[in-house]
Amino acid sequence: MWTANNWQDYELIDTSDGERLEKWGKYILVRPDPQIIWHGVKKNKLWSRPDAAYRRSSSGGGAWNANKLPADWKISYEKLGLTFLIKPMGFKHTGLFPEQAVNWEWFSELIKNANRPIKVLNLFGYTGGATVAAAKAGASVCHVDAAKGMVAQAKENAALSGLSDAPIRYIVDDCKKFVERELRRGNRYDAVIMDPPSYGRGPSGEVWKLEENIDSLIALTVQVLSDKPLFFLVNSYTTGLSPSTMGYLLTLHLKSKLGGQVESDEIGLPVNETGAALPCGSSSRWWIE
Known about the structure:
26% of the residues lie in helices and 32% in strands. It is α/β, with parallel strands linked by helices. Helix 1 packs parallel to helix 2 (129-136) and helix 5 (210-222) packs parallel to helix 6.
């Protein structure tokens, strides 16, 4: 497992009974997590007095209760000099996936060591964690997400990280349609970061299921790579899509044609109370050194 071990402003304190006990800056949150199937080990006293807890409703959805939080606050990832705005929102989200720091560190080193200008395409860019990490490392970035509010928060995160004037393009669009247009326009990128959702609906109401669409999406997006590609990163939070499956796709579409290397694994966060690591998703990486 690739584990994000270098956080100072975030801490996964404990896990039990389908929930995480977390510290985001100075605030303690309790959030549900379907991976946490073990029970009866809530020993830490903070379980009983979080600043906010997200509780699911029997009728669907859920809400934050016992909420003692501000509307938003900042945390930093000091190793890379990044700062992010945390905003508790619907469906338990906070606007950041801290486990992705392990990928930020990986591609930041590739960008810094490339010794040439690097153009990065970040698809399904959400609130811009990968975007600001790539820009901080010196890349120019095209950030694409279909949600206007998420793109706005990505701009805020860039500003907080001292990147207001960095070469970042922010695009509110359907990612697949944007890639198709970039191909027609002849625009190319040296690296691609892709974090597609498990399930969703397209702009015309079409249903998106990651397992059914990821192969064709990767095949399409590979075509926007430049003549000197650097890396291609795919993230997944779909439990039915294993790291090995994603690795096979990158081998099929990239390594078999361009050479390079492919690695795939779970990504996770260390749990301070137990010393174990919580699996939080999967990543597959292709790169050329």
